[in-house]
Amino acid sequence: MKEFVIKSNQVRRDSFDFVDDGKIIGEVWLLHHSEICELGYVTPPAFRGQGVATLLVKAMCDHAFGKTDAQIIEAFPAATNKASIRVLEKNGFQPAAEHKEGIEGLTHYSLSKADWLKTQPVGSSPAGYSDPPATSISPEK
Predict the structure, then answer these.
(1) Coil, helix or strand for 86?
(2) What is the mean pLDDT of each run of 10 residues along the chain (141 residues)?
(3) Model's pTM, two decimal places?
(4) Which structural domain, as residue segments, surrounds residue 58?
(5) What is the pLDDT of residue 52?
(6) Do 113 and 70 meet the contact criterion of CB atoms below 8 Å apart?
(7) Is 98 contained in some domain?
(8) For residue 93, is it left (φ>0), alpha (ψ between -120 and 50) or beta?
(9) How many domains does the chain have?
(10) How far is the C-alpha of 5 from the C-alpha of 17, rounded, in Å?
(11) What DSSP letter does each residue of 106-138 carry, written as one string?
(12) CA 23 to CA 112: how far, in whole Å?
């Protein structure tokens, strides 16, 4: 059974593990820097290309914009990591207008709460958001 394990056990950091039969098949985390947050995620090689990272990033964006004061989520994938960039793009992230100095070899992507809200079903609101369920979540194929 695939499920999310929600952890918020560190100051200014939220994280979710995606677990399949007790084995972690992906993790996503969010570092809070006031209203701007930094996103990170990882999946073991055996589980890449199965939609796990896309699902994890979506769950964290929904959590961040629905349950925290986040207004912008930033991510810094390696410029050569096309799969990671695609994960971000599938979740609405865009290349950031400005490149942060001192981050050689990385790209800068961001998603604003306003842009995230545009992707939500009509009539839904962040106030009605609930964390991902802890049972039976399948990644896209």
Answers:
(1) helix
(2) 58 79 89 91 92 92 90 94 96 80 79 92 55 45 43
(3) 0.79
(4) 2-119
(5) 92
(6) yes
(7) yes
(8) beta
(9) 1
(10) 5
(11) B--EEEEHHHHHHTSPTT--GGG--PPPSS---
(12) 32
